[in-house]
Amino acid sequence: MKSLLTLLLIHSTIFFSAAQQLKISGNGRYIESQDGKPFLWIGDTAWELFHKLSREEASEYLETRARQGFTVIQAVVLAENDGLRIPNAYGDLPLIGLSPEKPNERYFMHVDFIVNKAASLGLYIAMLPTWADKVPSNRPEPGPVVFNRHNASSFGEFLGNRYKKQPVIWILGGDRDVQDQEVFEIWKAMALGLKKGDGGRHLITYHPAGESSSSYWFHNEDWLDFNMYQSGHAHHYMPVYQFAEEDWLKKPAKPFIDGEPAYEDIPVRFWVYMDWNEPAKKKKILDKQGLVKDKSYFPEGFFTDYDVRVHAYWNFLSGACGYTYGNNAVWQMFKKNNAFSIPALTDWKEALTRPGAEDMQYLKKLFELRPFSKLVPDQSIIYGKNPRDSTHIRSAKAEDGSFFIVYLPIGGPVKINMKKISGRLITAWWYNPRNGKAEKIIKTTKEDIQEFISPGAGKGNDWVLVLDDRNARLKTLEM
Known about the structure:
Blueprint: H1 2-11, E1 22-24, E2 31-33, E3 38-39, E4 41-45, H2 49-52, H3 55-67, E5 72-78, H4 105-120, E6 124-130, H5 149-162, E7 168-173, H6 181-198, E8 204-207, E9 212-213, H7 215-218, E10 227-230, H8 240-249, E11 256-258, H9 270-273, H10 279-285, H11 305-316, E12 322-325, H12 328-331, H13 348-351, H14 355-369, E13 375-377, E14 394-398, E15 403-408, E16 411-417, E17 425-432, E18 437-445, E19 449-457, E20 463-469
Parallel strand pairs: 4-5, 4-12, 5-6, 6-7, 7-8, 10-11
Antiparallel strand pairs: 1-2, 2-3, 9-10, 13-14, 14-15, 15-20, 16-19, 17-18, 17-20
Helix pairs in contact: 3-4, 5-6, 11-14
């Protein structure tokens, strides 16, 4: 009975309505539904979702992320971890004879199941047709390279047609820059193939290598609907706002998103320390289940939930229309006693409820309460010195001046230039990004410069200051 039900679910297709179809807003700054409702991208990097998980496991993963407030799941069809030669959980490879022109129906039935399950939970799948190691690049491993202009177009058309009636967003690339004109043309051919297959129903972007943006190569391409940058895993307090500032100024205006910031629980600059040629070293660092037991091997430490929040709020208040979370165990769907790409602290199931993932619901809560679609980045709100380091404060205002949002990564005092907020009577309140609660309400009369002091301060004690024009009658949270 269970297997019959599974087969029925695989073959049932959950079609998305015209209202669910996404488009770019008129001002080119955010994504919205066809009925004009702003779409808040709260994503997760589940790169190996199609490749590694069974249907039961995938359902558990998706149900958890839906509960946590995620709206987008980023997953790869032809996966990074040798996805062309290592089969999925059911023993199926995606391509017959490594040919993009011969997709394996059984493999794609499994992809169908996951896409349908996500749709039933109100989640969009941001689908990468392939990881970029299957396209020529300066980092081809593990590959193999199988794409050229012709079969990239046909594979794109196949995918576009198969998922044209489902809530999908296309992401080309996969952690690679574009090395030459031929590679550029391959990605363009795949993009045009996707558009031909789905009739232009779905949005398209490109996921580049670390510390770069799709805008560098593709901004003026008509098929690129919004930009994606990867701020990467190089250090704490990555100045993600620099990528945002550059993409904000580009013409024509296109929305942008940090599609791969520092993952929770990943070692800082892991690639510098990933030398496993000595078995004794590996045995010292990892336990019998393949988990990291000696954290000191990575002297720069691991990214935490605090890093996740810092990068998330810095991105949003710099004009981004969304943010993608990631966890080191989850992206690779690491299972104990199995192979890994980057050593993990937990398996993927334990990692699902790590603090950074749970914090995403509070991020969503704030930017639905004070709509992100109305925000314009404005650093002149901050009065006085504002170094671009761990203390950097980020600020944005509503276009009509009805509210300000200011993020303090270490809390403490902040002086605010009040001239740009509308109205004379102001309500100020502190939002705790660690639990989603309002901590203190202050009612004041507007002055030119006013100082506010957060309820707490120090590393890991970050706060969001919200200032409202009382005449705007905006909703506030109960303390």
